[in-house]
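Feature request disguised as a bug report, sorry. It would help if multi-protein outputs had a clear separator. Right now it looks like this:
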Amino acid sequence: MVSPFFTVVIPVYKGVDFLEGCAESLLAQTFRDFEALFIEDGSPDESGALCDRLAARDERFVSLHQPNGGVTSARNHGIRAARGRWLLFLDQDDRFAPGLMQAVFEALGKSSPEDLVHWAFTGVRQQAGLLPPEAGGEPIRFYSQRELGLFYGAGNTHYIWTKLFSVEFLREHSLYFDERIQDGTDDLPFVVAYWHAWFSCHPGGRILYLKTPYYYYEMGNEASVSNRLQPYQPSHLAMFTDLLRDYLTLYKVPEEDCFLLCRQALHTLSYGLYSARGPARRRAARQLWNAPECRRLLDFMGRQHFYSPFYLPWRARAAWLCAALFGSFLGGRFLYEKCDWLGWYLLGGRWKRL
């Protein structure tokens, strides 16, 4: 049997409301040399039967079933089962724009074998597949490793479903998802590990970034893991500090270009404190305050004068204030915005801020 060019991995759990649309976006692809692996993860609804019906509809669709192990386990199942040369991830409630695979195929021809191919996404279905006006007519941009701090500003770093992965490279370097992570924050640790391994082996590698949002991310699925509270876990701190380490030591990113990463780190960790309640919040705060990586992150932000509304509450170890600020950020933002300006003023008004 001839191996397909692409393998698409779709974890499926309680997906009956979205899976048909996801599958239709695959059938609409103008590039047709692919297989799509629907990994049904022990779903209690009719998702498994729906996967089987989809597989009967098109020979490129493959229905695979496993006991419930979570999305990370399902994705690892897909990596092991993939027959394609290149791997793409697609969530069951999202969609590919019709030209995604063709655009990625053509991008591979424009890049060197050392480069990685990434693309933009959108939460507005009508914008999927359309080059945005702010792109200035330029559909692609190359980012060197030193420019990965600037690439963070594209809002693309965290997500596995905006990236192309080499199946052979994943297996050779035993790059799989951490199955202990079950709260929807598994993407960035996987990306950090893949980038680290890839660029260590390809020191001249770059990122070819397709500015067209070829991926549609569904914002209205309230059952999505990413829409649930995410109490702090040690992996939340590690994914940011590991990436910052690689920025500075492996990719030689200028320190001043690490601002957005550091700011996002405090934002996400504060969400972890907000999501934890009562004794769980106090335990999480103690873990964070005692972590050397946390102290180094704050010290780095202080040396660089990187401002965040959460910076002074973190320095004061005021977990309750971090949680209150994040609650305000999600709500009316009155407290958040007042503390944002107050903290910046107390620090002299000269720190870098958004």
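(second protein starts here, but nothing in the output says so)
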Amino acid sequence: MTSDPPRPAIAILIAVAAVGPLALNIFTPSLPGMQRVFDVSYGTIQLTITLFLFGTAFAQLLYGPLSDRFGRKPVLLTGLVLFLIGSLASAYAPTIFWLLFSRTLQAVGGCAGLVLSRAIVRDMHNREKSASMIGYITVGMVVVPMISPLIGGFLDEWFDWRAGFLFVTAVGFLVLVSTVLKLPETNFDLRPIPGLRGILSSYGDLLESRDFRHYALIAAFTSAAFFAFLSGGPFVVIELLEQPKSVYGICFGLVAFGYMSGNFLTGRMAERMGTNRMITLGTSLSLVGAVLMCALAFAESISLAAIFGPMALITFGNGLSLPSATAGSVSVNPKIAGAAAGLAGFFQMTLSACVTLLVGYLQSDSALPMIFTILVTSLIAASIHTHVSFRKR
């Protein structure tokens, strides 16, 4: 009689999934100050977010197939090493060019945890259980992005913007050591690398699946609404509302708490309600929050409450819909779960990167470009799910 293979501890999956969001979020309060340090426009300094997202997007296309061939753990360790190199290089970047390059390398490494934590869960569980587990993992990993802008704001005020990157480097090293010591391999059905034609064929098979397109696009537009806020929020709060960086970090906690609460409910309810009903509820609530934010923007002058209150509702809805959409996308063909996770993540990060570019380009002495972008992306996510659900009846 053979024993079941060891299952990875939930804490390890949370940690490897959280390092990327930590690096993305911790320095957002520093963006306006970094604009002055490097003597560039806000649109240029915002490329530190945009290129991070593009790097994450394209690297995910590789991590999935590589982990299907070589196993989850060795590929994950390689990504974490790249993450450490990029984080340390970002801390000591002398020019904006090197900062952008280092941030891209940081993203390429950090996204390994985002992709492979999902694939590891799918290795061990069916679709409904995967949605529940991803929900629980996201509850934990959201705690890090929830407090990271607060940490970054205080580190910037006490030291300077480089302190945040040094903090990320230290955390990344601890995660790397923990992964080496504690994370077991979960992919025991290794498949040969199919070559470029084979990889494209796998992605083509996924794209031909209506279910995959449904889930992947919902996840992409849901994520884009959040990144529109992440891109424009620091400018609105710190520059337009003239609030300290630490205030942005504190208020961001409300937004992250909404997302964490939604993910917690997903962990409790997904198996009972099913992925599609969770997506319906989540996209509907997010759209209500986006409409409320837009209405408040026209009804009164922009305030912290008018921005962060509706955004908390939006992220609460995202917490309900995103884990289920993610689980649905990687469950279309379990034999290529790594490739599915990578392709779905590519959609998410590419669209989110384009949204940050759009918000940066439209940025003016108004919060409306950010608010309209959040409204449109939330509306599209809800519309896609409504359309597909109606066609299935």
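Even a blank line would do. Unrelated, but nice: Residues 127-158 form the longest helix (32 residues).
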